[in-house]
């Protein structure tokens, strides 16, 4: 059992909601569609009335045949039954149409809210939680929720028929009706007691599905790496483990839900026997007529079926509540990046100041401590240091992707926590080591940050990067399809597209995060030419692995475990023969010589 439930714990952002709280929140999504739901309720009532008319008409026809056959009109009875059945069919059809539309509207709203929540989560959220599991909540859980609402409407129709039938049966024979309904509490009690285990089982099932989705997505995303290292069998074996776990969870799910039906059917069978036995006595004493006897026999099935199906419904209802709980957990996840205000940001000059800042990703693993740094407007600052020294963390904090724990980050003398982030980030340009391109053309990707830019603007910017020489290598120029994640382009071409994208945005602050670390020297030359254009007259933070991107920086700071240990220009730092000079001799000089050799070759 421990193996089966391994990895099925709730995510840290999950919350527990009561059934009442969940239902209330779900009803809130139906509120904008109130009139449509009123119409659904009306046709549900009409459909139930028509379904009730059928056994009542047959019952009265049987009594008429028994006591006054000469007045019985079979044609009128047949027409009445046909009319009731036809009206019930039409009412049911309208109900299906209206409910499908209403549920579709609600599912649309819920899924849009879930996706909007996903886009609003800060980067630390995606560091902690698997993307596949988040996708499962947006897609699978919202779909499960919609199916539950449809089942709820169907059950409401059946239960309304039960209520109307019981009311009518009371007018026929009170004692028989009491016998009929006396078993209802036992069925309801059993079904409701089933609720707790059902919720737990279904929630585990949903979590396991999310785990499978996450594993598949990760495996497919990294399939090229797996093939390069000949690890196809390994990822298949890992999937078999996850899939087997899913099988075991679903098997338990099946055991739980299949066990409830024999219990409920047994209870219903006892009630049926009681009604038949008592009804026979009543008929023998002429208390019940043949028609009334038929009506109670029919009513028995009409009542027991919806009640015994409550267990089936309850499993689906718990599935819907569990799915709703997971979606609402995503919606209600607390953002770690919290703004104190939402002030619009005027055109930035680009002054950046870290004041006595403490920052960590995980509790107890400090990245920056009492960190101070001032970057002047228009300055190009290079960050140098070993892996884990805090270079990328500084860039991420400036981008406001993460929340710092103490101190201040000032942009043009203003606390970054008071900014409207969308307004602020519109003046921020970031090029990462592995740029992400969206499926579409090169032109579409360059225009991504400025959708209203004209084709002429895009062409002009593209030609500014590396003098446009890189465009010749594109099969269809700017109309070349980049493919999923930019797979049709080389890494260097992707970087050039990313630089053009930022250049078109014309940011006040530019961050270059090791953008030339994974490209060949020739492409690096083109990128460097693009950077010369990009770095001009704007504040730039360059995180570098190669000498060419830092040797002309206005200032270089050397980081070690989140502290600035050296600061100056390339020449002054080399003259000091300190940590930077050692780093340069052991790493940058080797790269420089390698570059010269390649160019000579």
Low-confidence stretches: 1-9, 595-601
Helix fraction bin: 55-70%
CATH architecture of one domain: Up-down Bundle
Computed over alpha carbons, the radius of gyration is 35 Å
Q: Helix-strand pattern, N to C?
A: HHHHHHHHHHHHEEEHEEHEHHHEHEEEHH
CATH topology grouping of one domain: ABC transporter transmembrane region fold
Features:
Rossmann fold; 601 residues; alpha/beta; single chain; disordered C terminus; 6-stranded mixed β-sheet; ABC transporter transmembrane region fold
Commentary on this structure:
- This protein has 601 residues and is an alpha/beta fold.
- Among the domains are: 2-331, ABC transporter type 1, transmembrane domain (ABC transporter transmembrane region fold); 428-506, Rossmann fold (3-Layer(aba) Sandwich), CATH 3.40.50.300.
- The chain has 20 helices and 10 strands.
- The chain has helices spanning 2-5, 19-30, 34-67, 74-120, 123-128, 131-172, 174-181, 184-193, 195-221, 223-228, 232-284, 290-331, 391-398, 421-425, 442-446, 455-464, 491-505, 521-535, 570-576, 579-600; strands at 352-360, 366-375, 380-385, 406-411, 414-415, 428-431, 509-513, 539-543, 555-560, 563-568.
- The strands form 2 sheets. Strands 6-7-8-3-9-10 form a 6-stranded mixed β-sheet, sandwiched between helices. It has a 4-stranded antiparallel β-sheet with strand order 2-1-4-5, covered by helices on one side.
- Helix 3 packs parallel to helix 6, helix 8 (184-193) packs antiparallel against helix 11 and helix 19 (570-576) packs across helix 20 (579-600).
- The two termini are 63 Å apart.
